[in-house]
Write a structure and sequence with these properties.
Number of helices: 8
Helix content: 10-25%
Largest sheet: 7 strands, mixed
Number of strands: 13
Shape: globular
Structural class: alpha/beta
Order of helices and strands: EEHEEEHHEHHEEEEEHEHEH
Length: 304
């Protein structure tokens, strides 16, 4: 079983009759994200700038983007004045595993300059230097892509862990993420600050060896990758039980889990003394458990 992970954050001005997306940032490019985002924007009545776009109504909706509003008019992205069809203003990549970059070739082909897409600017892709090297090897293995096409379509921006950088209205910092000995170098998580909100994009890690705990403290939203309920380091991700500890340790106000399957939890069924889950649990059950732990932190928590 394989999952694909992505998350959008969209800044929009809800006061306008037609709700244009003022800035759209995407974290990772799991399979199906392009069609999912297009369909999601259409369902939400949000358009990207003022360019015509054809939606694929048959596209599956994998999940809604995070919507934040509004921006101060003085800080609006100057690209609002451009008539272009870029779906995203920027893409941030956490690491180069296939389930996090699978849509990048499709996005590059979409960005590739042509008469149809004249006037578009290169898409900025943010990642660590090691992650970029892995991505380029992956991209050049696709027969439909050549190096010149990649260079004409995207502009890699190198991220240095533990240093803040700006992407439009977002202030972001990356922290190194240990994702298992067999995982590609250059893995990170991102802490995003915008409109007085803090969001942690923290999927796919076992530990954060150099993270500044004070920066991780008190997020408005914590997104964590946890493939199993019980601890299974072989998944190269923390477990749901370890997520509980981080919710309290960082005082998260809200928490979403991604990547969960629970399949490895069947292994515990052979232990007659084990009292935790020994099979996958439903997303509703999982969220209820997470919400019960949020009561011990966040806005009403005793750790605040």
């Amino acid at each position: 079983m394989e999952t694909n992970t992505s998350c959008s954050i969209i800044i929009r001005d809800t006061k306008q009759k037609t709700q244009y997306a003022e800035f759209h940032i995407l974290f990772d490019l799991g399979e199906g994200v392009i069609r999912s985002v297009e369909k999601g924007l259409s369902d939400l009545g949000i358009e990207k700038y003022q360019a015509e776009r054809t939606d694929d109504n048959s596209a599956p909706v994998l999940g809604p983007p995070l919507l934040l509003s509004p921006l101060n008019p003085k800080t609006q992205n100057s690209a609002l004045q451009e008539k272009r069809a870029n779906l995203f203003d920027a893409v941030l990549i956490s690491h180069a595993h296939e389930d996090h970059i699978r849509e990048l070739p499709n996005l590059i082909l979409r960005q590739s300059p042509s008469a149809e897409h004249a006037g578009k600017t290169k898409l900025k892709v943010y990642c660590t230097r090691a992650c970029k090297e892995h991505i380029m090897k992956n991209l050049l293995s696709h027969t439909s892509l050549i190096k010149s096409t990649i260079e004409e379509s995207i502009d890699f921006q190198i991220v240095t862990p533990n240093e803040f950088f700006n992407v439009g209205p977002f202030s972001i910092i990356a922290f190194n993420a240990f994702h298992g000995n067999e995982s590609p170098d250059g893995s990170v998580i991102y802490v995003v600050n915008v409109l007085n909100l803090k969001i942690i994009m923290g999927w796919d890690f076992l530990s954060l060896p150099e993270a500044n705990e004070s920066i991780l403290w008190n997020p408005d939203l914590l997104i964590l990758g946890a493939e199993t309920y019980n601890e299974h380091p072989e998944t190269r991700m923390i477990s749901v039980t370890e997520a509980y500890d981080l919710i309290r340790r960082w005082n998260a106000k809200e928490c979403y889990l991604v990547h969960y399957s629970g399949l490895e939890d069947f292994n515990e069924s052979t232990n007659q003394w084990f009292r935790g889950p020994v099979k996958p649990i439903s997303s509703t059950e999982l969220q209820n458990i997470i919400d019960s732990h949020l009561k011990l932190s966040g806005a009403q928590g005793k750790f605040r």
